[in-house]
Amino acid sequence: MAQQPPPTYVFTGDRRRIEPYVYAYTMHCKGRWCGRRPDEVFGTEFKMNPPAYYEEALRDGRITVNDALWDGQSTLQQGDVIRHLAHRHEPPVPKGPIRVVGLTENALAVDKPPGLPMHPCGSYHHNTLTSLLREDFTTRSFVCADGVDWAEAQRAARQGLRQVHRLDRLTSGLVIFARSASAARTLCEDIGQGRTQKTYIARVRGCFPDDAPVLRPEKRPRNAELADGSWRIDGDWVEVSCSLRTASHRDGVCECAPDAEDAKAARTKFRLVRKLSDGTSIVECRPQTGRTHQIRLHLQFLNHPIANDPCYGGELGFAGSSLVDDAPP
Question: Where are the alpha helices (DSSP H) in the chain?
């Protein structure tokens, strides 16, 4: 396949855009696709276009299987490579600049703004944090905090950084990248073994935790195992244990599914920081495991969804997301 040309960035107002371009998506057959026709897979799992578009693309060769035109009958098998040649229009993201807040011989840390995806996924490819670090580490896109050497940060970004954790697109916060394979292994082990602590701040609906469900409150001793699908209060903290699973691969959403065989165990601790006069609350969140959308789902489980999270019960518009409030903490 020919190498993709570099992106052309366009800045309008506070948004970064990319001129539309032709792109070859390359995918390896996933286990759940085996034995299914490619037109059925695309029609049910990819929502960027209607099913009729994918059917036509398979017929005219814009979508190929193992670099060959699909015969209209065969099903996908393990090891198959699917390519989709498409005219790509990426959604805009915040203009930036993105702030580099830390740099050591092993890692680089940035303050990720909300609205910027971590890595290529879905409709995004160049308009992502990892791509911008690699392709556009310039003064229009990045700024260094006091004490961070610009030339060394730029060199680290261009030599290649390794992602060791992620934040959702709409989430802002600290992201750490490793500068070498050995540093990435160490950081991943630290995260996986619980030697690090991630802390998030969320604005949730209601006066936390007054709306938490009463059907299955957990009243076991502090050192007892917390049952799946339950919660308990431990001092200032609310602990939740509820397994999660993917609800829709096509839509990229998950769901709470306690005791389900295909769900993965998940645990989170929450602490009230402040109640606001508009009926929302500021909550500190500490995930004990690292499942997709874990904090968002566990807050939904407690009937206190993130206030502006439309996927999981939030109703507050983004225009009303200011934390300015005259109520006492």
Answer: 38-45, 51-60, 129-135, 150-159, 181-192, 294-301
Tokens of 267: 């645990």
Q: What digits encode the pLDDT tens for the residues 126-181?
A: 999 999 999 999 999 999 999 999 999 999 999 999 999 989 898 999 999 999 99
pLDDT digits (tens, 9 = 90+) for 255-273: 999 999 999 999 999 999 9
Banded model confidence at residue 249, pLDDT cuts 50, 70, 90: confident
Peptide bond into 7 cis (omega under 30): no
pLDDT(203) > 60: yes
Separation of first and last alpha carbons in the chain: 58
Report the distance separating Cα 80 and Cα 70, nearest Å. Answer: 12
Active site members = 168
Q: Which two tokens stand for residue 316?
A: 């507050």
Residue 85 belongs to what H/E stretch? strand 81-88
* DSSP designation for 320: G
Checking 281-284 for CB contacts under 8 A at 24+ apart, the result is: 281/203, 281/204, 281/206, 281/207, 281/208, 282/201, 282/202, 282/203, 282/204, 282/323, 283/201, 283/202, 283/203, 283/204, 283/208, 284/199, 284/200, 284/201
Burial of residue 134 (number of CB atoms within 10 Å: 0-12, 13-18, 19+): middle
